[in-house]
UniProtKB/TrEMBL annotation:
<dbReference type="GO" id="GO:0009103">
    <property type="term" value="P:lipopolysaccharide biosynthetic process"/>
</dbReference>
<keyword id="KW-0472">Membrane</keyword>
<feature type="domain" description="Glycosyltransferase RgtA/B/C/D-like">
    <location>
        <begin position="54"/>
        <end position="220"/>
    </location>
</feature>
<feature type="transmembrane region" description="Helical">
    <location>
        <begin position="162"/>
        <end position="192"/>
    </location>
</feature>
<feature type="transmembrane region" description="Helical">
    <location>
        <begin position="256"/>
        <end position="275"/>
    </location>
</feature>
<keyword id="KW-0812">Transmembrane</keyword>
<feature type="transmembrane region" description="Helical">
    <location>
        <begin position="108"/>
        <end position="127"/>
    </location>
</feature>
<dbReference type="GO" id="GO:0016763">
    <property type="term" value="F:pentosyltransferase activity"/>
</dbReference>
<keyword id="KW-0328">Glycosyltransferase</keyword>
<protein>
    <submittedName>
        <fullName>Glycosyl transferase</fullName>
    </submittedName>
</protein>
<keyword id="KW-1133">Transmembrane helix</keyword>
<feature type="transmembrane region" description="Helical">
    <location>
        <begin position="280"/>
        <end position="298"/>
    </location>
</feature>
<dbReference type="Pfam" id="PF13231">
    <property type="entry name" value="PMT_2"/>
</dbReference>
<dbReference type="GO" id="GO:0005886">
    <property type="term" value="C:plasma membrane"/>
</dbReference>
<feature type="transmembrane region" description="Helical">
    <location>
        <begin position="77"/>
        <end position="96"/>
    </location>
</feature>
<keyword id="KW-1003">Cell membrane</keyword>
<dbReference type="InterPro" id="IPR050297">
    <property type="entry name" value="LipidA_mod_glycosyltrf_83"/>
</dbReference>
Length: 469
């Protein structure tokens, strides 16, 4: 038995460690330039609406709140990410009490929260702002309310508010990213195959609460010809079985990297343990995992897609009955190394081997040179078809306005399209350079990271994007 004094010491150490990690993540969020996708979501935040072509609205809402506090800066865009880890860790810590009934608590809560925090998915991911950031937060809160809803010490009436909260939080996770629906399917499978849950009214009353929370995204899609659902659902129709070995290898490699190797093994051992003694966690983890593995037989699974399962896997890991100290230490060390490389680039890797540098490096000088050159040639705007490039230019410089020429911008509440004299910028591909274009590259330490073709000024039609001012 662990003494009360020892437990108090562990609690203080646990929250002290999370506090230090939060400070480090905030510093990282402020130091690393935005990726093009983050700049794209920032544009969303300047035009809040219930849905967007690529994802639901939650990431835009989080950025809107963050920039209200910290301005249109990298820290402002990412502010809520590092801060959300603290309440998320609290939720997972308490979820372990009832979802892992055979493990002593609070030790089980410490371990589950530390395992999740030690993954690269959360360690580095929480210092960036993508749809996965609010998704992970709401899934951890969902696990907490679910753990309260299934508490055998509660009557059906007492459990009802917790089931409603479970539905609402799962809906908010859906409002963050569509992959949350896979957790809902897993929960549905657990309810239907467990008599004690199936006979309660709570799980069925949670369904209307879930639908209400999802309704803004559903209504936006209904009024926009189901554009977002069609775009994301259309990926399931891709099928290239001849490349299944490649796709499966990428899925496996991506998860080993984002979980970190030892935690990945721990996750696998935990799921094996859950098959014997924790039906609920098996349903929550395996339904999404089976969907991703099945998808990998015919198309690529992006490494971040399985992020939705990571809080569940952090709980499941304890069912392996292994020590978690060294997997956690190794995960924290690997994450720290990646963060050092992201901020300081001590290893001068070539760009295609340094994904952070490839996405974030050299934007300030590139954007300024591009805008000054365009203005000197008589252009009154910059134009780009690639949504990430257009958004990044809009966030980085305020010398010239930026026009987005991709049709997706017409789904935003933006000013009507205009036709002005602009230079068009495109990323150079396969070493080809169209006639009558010049070349400009993003560089770090004199090394070209990405090169872009710049067309002579001409009249271009596009949607004006918001600037930082």
């Amino acid at each position: 038995m662990v003494s009360e004094v020892e437990t108090t010491r562990q609690i203080r150490l646990f929250w002290g460690l999370l506090g230090v990690l939060t400070v480090i993540r905030l510093a990282l969020a402020a130091s690393v330039p935005l990726t093009p996708d983050e700049a794209y979501y920032w544009v969303w935040s300047r035009n809040l609406q219930p849905g967007y072509l690529d994802h639901p609205f939650m990431v835009a809402l989080w950025i809107h709140v963050g920039t209200w506090f910290a301005g249109n800066t990298p820290l402002g865009v990412r502010l809520l990410g590092p801060l959300s880890v603290l309440p998320g860790s609290w939720a997972l810590y308490h979820a372990a009490r009832r979802m892992l009934p055979t493990h002593p608590w609070p030790q089980s809560g410490f371990k589950a929260a530390l395992v999740l925090n030690a993954t690269l998915m959360l360690g580095l991911g929480s210092a960036t702002m993508t749809p996965d950031t609010p998704l992970l937060f709401f899934i951890t809160l969902f696990l907490y309310t679910l753990s309260r809803a299934i508490d055998p010490n509660l009557t059906s009436r007492e459990a009802l508010p917790w089931w409603i909260g479970t539905g609402v939080l799962l809906g908010l996770a859906f409002d963050s990213k569509y992959t949350a629906v896979l957790i809902g399917l897993g929960l549905g499978g657990a309810v239907l195959t467990t008599r004690s849950l199936r006979r309660q009214s709570g799980p069925w009353i949670a369904v209307p609460a879930l639908v209400v929370a999802m309704s803004p995204v559903i209504l936006w899609n209904a009024s926009h010809h189901w554009a977002s659902f069609m775009r994301q659902g259309g990926r399931a129709g891709d099928w290239h079985p001849a490349r299944a070995v490649q796709f499966m290898g990428e899925l496996l490699g991506g998860q080993i990297g984002l979980a970190t190797p030892f935690i990945f093994v721990l996750f696998g051992a935990g799921i094996w343990g859950c098959l014997k003694r924790n039906r609920l966690l098996v349903w929550l983890a395996l339904v999404p995992a089976v969907v991703f593995v099945t998808h990998a037989f015919g198309d690529r699974v992006q490494p971040n897609w399985p992020a939705v399962i990571y809080p569940v896997l952090a709980l499941a890991a304890l069912e392996a009955n292994w020590r978690v100290r060294w997997p956690v230490v190794s995960g924290v060390v690997l994450t720290f190394i990646v963060c050092i490389q992201a901020v300081f680039s001590p290893l001068h890797l070539i760009p295609h081997r340094d994904p952070v540098l490839r996405l974030t490096g050299g934007w300030d000088d590139f954007s300024r040179q591009l805008a000054l050159r365009a203005r000197a040639e008589g252009a009154t705007a910059l134009a780009a078809e690639d949504y990430g490039l257009a958004a990044r230019l809009s966030f980085t410089q305020d010398i010239l306005p930026v026009l987005g020429t991709d049709p997706r911008w017409h789904l935003f509440h933006l000013p009507a399209a205009v036709s002005v004299k602009a230079v068009k910028i495109e990323e150079q591909r396969h070493g080809l350079q169209p006639e009558k274009t010049t070349m400009l590259c993003r560089e770090v330490r004199g090394q070209a990271i990405r090169c872009y073709t710049v067309s002579p000024p001409d009249f271009v039609s596009g949607v004006p994007l918001p600037g930082r001012s």
